[in-house]
Description:
Layout lengths: L1 H19 L10 E4 L10 E6 L9 E11 L7 E7 L11 E2 L3 E4 L6 E9 L9 E8 L5 E2 L6 E7 L10 H8 L4 H11 L9 H17 L17
Parallel strand pairs: 1-9, 2-10
Antiparallel strand pairs: 1-3, 3-7, 4-6, 4-8, 5-7, 8-10
Helix pairs in contact: 3-4
Amino acid sequence: MRIIFLLILLGCLAFYGCQEEKPEMFIPERFIKFMFGNEAGEDYYKIECNFAYENDNTMEKIISVPVEFRGYNLTETLHFAVNVDKEKTTLPEDCFILETEQAFQPDGDFVDTMRVKLQRKAILKERSKILRLQLVPSSDFQVYMADSLFVEITVSDIFSQPEWWTDDIAKAYLGDYSKEKYDEFVKETGIRDFGTLDPSEKRFYAIMFKRALEKTPRFETDGRVMSVTITG
């Protein structure tokens, strides 16, 4: 009899213990955030969009940012919400198109994309503008990780030195930056983002540009002959 009582007591303890240790993965809510981490000290992502380096007929551009969720697997299309942070946004409303409710597809990988379409307007030639977007709770998703709920997009149509034209690129391939050299490089090679190329591609296009300059010399605004540093 004592053995039976002990077995019943152990069974009750196991039952209540399982209730208290209910895994969080079984909660019914789903949570969403932007997928990639931020730089130390920042609470939002920073993205640059400069129309000045696009073709003249490029009048809009779609910016895509990965979002991910935690919770039960999706079995149907759900929707997440994104709003404009009006206090910190300086980009005029006619310069972007944003769907404040966007679909999250049930493809099983827990990742989808937030999209906003930027419009090329004359005001962007005056100075850079900021568009700051924020994930907010919806009927399908809650938000979590406060430092991963913002994206800040700087939009302009002003020529400036591309981020990829670093000192290393200048020393090994293209020499010092100038707007005139950049324009000629794009005209000869069709390459606008040299930084995305692998080393063999960088060498190929830098030499292509070098040969073009040898065949038809070009000049900087101060009268110097345009040159590159690549050898070969």
